[in-house]
User: Fold these one by one.
Assistant:
Number 1:
Amino acid sequence: MKQTSVIAPSILSADFARLGEETRAVLDAGADWVHFDVMDNHYVPNLTIGPLVCESLRKYGIAAPIDVHLMVKPVDRIIPDFAKAGASLISFHPEASEHIDRTLGLIADQGLQAGLVFNPATPLHWLDHTLHRLDLVLIMSVNPGFGGQSFIPSALDKIRAVRQRIDASGRAVRLEVDGGIKQDNIGAVSAAGADTFVAGSAIFGKPDYRATIAAMRAAL
């Protein structure tokens, strides 16, 4: 059974010179979560932001859930840092962890929710042994590393397959999708089974955040 829809703008597309102000503005405009993309120029070919920025947003007064997506390798070293910095949920890629169960345990030990991320060509078999420990499954509908990419249509089949697994488990696991989400495809992504939607340039690239988020909700 799908949960209430969540819209999580990716601050990767925000104006970094005004990050606190931009983050607050998008939440005031109706967003639910803050999606926080962490890239290391190793696991993915880009370099973004770390725990100090997360901590700064909390000090600025951002109280909404901060959804940290780690595109780094290795992952274990930096998880406690993000926990201290105020992360609410941490998700990571199975390819980036030597011991996935241990990494999930590390996130849980920090008192945070845990997610596993699947790239377009990553098989879902990792869920056979991890779904019982997950709070979120994140399907990448682009290859990770850069914002502003186009949605890969085959992701819809993957979303449907994960929705079946979650429903069969009977657990309240969120199904998040990240990559090329826009007003004109968010309805199809929701129909495939997603309940949590990451959008970067589709929101931050528009002049009216409130109107854009309202249009996305209307399309769900």
Note: Residues 6-219 form a domain with the TIM Barrel fold (CATH 3.20.20.70).
Number 2:
Amino acid sequence: MKAVVFHGVGDIRLDDVPEPEIQEPTDAIVRLTSSAICGTDLHMVRGTLSGMKEGTILGHEGVGIVEEVGSQVRNLNPGDRVVVGSTVGCGYCSYCRAGYYAQCDNANPNGPQAGTAFFGGPEATGPLDGMQAEYARIPYASVTCVKLPENVTDEQAIMISDIFPTGYFGADIADVSDGDTVTVFGCGPVGQFAIVSAFMMGAGRVFAVDNREDRLEMARAQGAEVVNFDEEDPVGTVQELTGGIGTDRVIEAVGVDAEAPGGERDEQEVGQVAPETNPQEGGLWQPGGVPSQSAVWATEAVCKAGTISVIGVFPPPAMTFPIGALQQRNLTVKGGNCNHRRYIPKLVGLVASGALDPTDILTQEEPVTGAIEAYEVFDQRRPGWIKVELLPKAS
């Protein structure tokens, strides 16, 4: 089968690889009918998240048809159409039972203290082969897969595999409630769904901060009040628009891979050779040094005693945060990897009911055979390329 395979920093290829097989009784094999490229995939390609194992299939978003199930998969049958959650949970450990599927004690082969297991990630996350392929092996399939109603399309479902739940998670842990004012830093796909989710939870006003006009236009179309940080001071603008108070909640959806004010990139492009030095040096985040600009802005834009949720991806060595502001302003900060299985069934139900349509965020569809070129264009932040769906040949 064809699959997008990691060979090294800046080196991904469309390879012919063996089709996956059942390895554990809790496994299922899914024939992918839809996958996608996520900003997190670029972290691995650029080297921002280190530890990738050569030969790992990329991609943590998938929709498809169940082809085969292990003996312990009792809720799925071959032929069922499913959305696959990006993070893997067993469903029976104490963390999964409490809804913290991303901290499952059993899903990560590296042990219960290894952290989140997700598809197509570094060795520390499994590694588990991803879903930018024609077929995928899904561990703990009874929990990781959610069956889809006929009236939910692949295009809708692929948004529910990762980015919609992650945006919803950001609004959830920020404790957004009726009448709240919210600032979302970063208007990529996850930030867009954080805006949607904040309004779903009753937010009265949402401010969207970015410097790309295509993203800001999409945020404005959703009802957000937009701020271009290349043209005005984002903190000063949010403070002015809230009477000097700041917003009740802030959702940090930027992470480490970002653009500095003025549009300067902090990472090498896909396909370029990785530099000898640390790829993050000189960017918005530096190891053991300066915190990300978005984290500083978050602590300044939120009101006193407000709440910040951090859902942008940072590498494990990121050790800095404006802790002084946290203490002096009585702020609450929450963050983490999304517990996808906690939110996916609800979001599938909302889409099936017609209450919302997540495909407004989907801007491109490309065949998996064109994935390398799609990665390059996506990495260049070409205007209009906000979310890219990949269509496997096997579909």
Note: Residues 2-162+339-391 form a domain with the Quinone Oxidoreductase; Chain A, domain 1 fold (CATH 3.90.180.10).
Number 3:
Amino acid sequence: MVTSMPLRVLKMVGNFKEAGYIRDAPSLVEARGKRPPTNKADVVAYLRAGTSYTVSPGPVEDRFDPARQAGTAGILTDGIYAWPHFLAYYVEHYDVELPADFEQHMHDRTWRVPASVDLDPVALPWEV
């Protein structure tokens, strides 16, 4: 008898409506400059340290300065939350506000993504 593990749906953050994926997503323009400076380096490091969930090698243009690249369209995760690869860039350069529960989650993990993230079985909200 084969038993399957229940599917864990990742909580998506940083998928702004300007990216065109989710209509009801928050606005990158409205989130700009709203993140407090506390723990900024820790947050950026956490976002960059995520485990790859999807990889997309194509560059993503900076929405505020088209001459710059914000990263790629890949998605990173810590096993609970998922975020676009480019989110660290926007937090670092534009102080983009993140959801309070995600900030608390990173703080509770002492700003460290687990060394090993189990991706089986997980899914993004639009995959279920």
Note: The radius of gyration is 15 Å.
Number 4:
Amino acid sequence: MTVLERLNEVNDVRIRPVTDPEFASFGRIVTGYDFSSMIRYMEEHTTIPENGNIYVASVPELEADPVMKQVQDRFYGELEAQAGYCNGRNTTYNGFEYHKGSEINVAVTDFMLVLGHVWEIRDNTYRVEDAQVFFVEKGTAVEMYQTTLHLSPCRVTDEGFKGIVILPRGTNTPLACGGRGEDPENVLLLQKNKWVIAHPDREPLIRQGAHAGLLGENKELCYRSGGER
């Protein structure tokens, strides 16, 4: 039994591979860039926390990799980009974020992504049941469009997950401006180039000031038989 088959056997939502045509409105598989040395760095120099997740927006060693110059010049059209990572043991939806500009995720391990569309946001709320789940195989790089709602990956093993995160420079760093303005969307602005809808039960996000607008159960994904996470 493959990992994807097992995940579909133990969950009550369908989990598709990112090669599925259904992924096309959320993003695409990125080809033409060699992320292998960045993956090796992640394997050798980063760890998975015992609990929760760790996110680092910018890692100089990752950004010094020659492929990052290609990513900035070609993928981002000569805009400055940052490379960091997200490692952890997450299994729940928790909320969603989006950016004004695409994000590249490189799967250092297998993991799942829970994704939605920004056009399904209503009055700064989003319904859990509108999201879809995709499996990303180790070594795969995916672009998530700026219209794609996402958050932390979800693990598919006891060990947890590791992923490289590439974004326009400055994303996910503290805001410098005071106040949020009158645009209703500003309620969701949490950090630079980061708009967030959190589940009310996700206390760490709420404490940071995230808007509690995710409606429905804070769904948890299984990866083992017997409903074990």
Note: The mean pLDDT is 95.
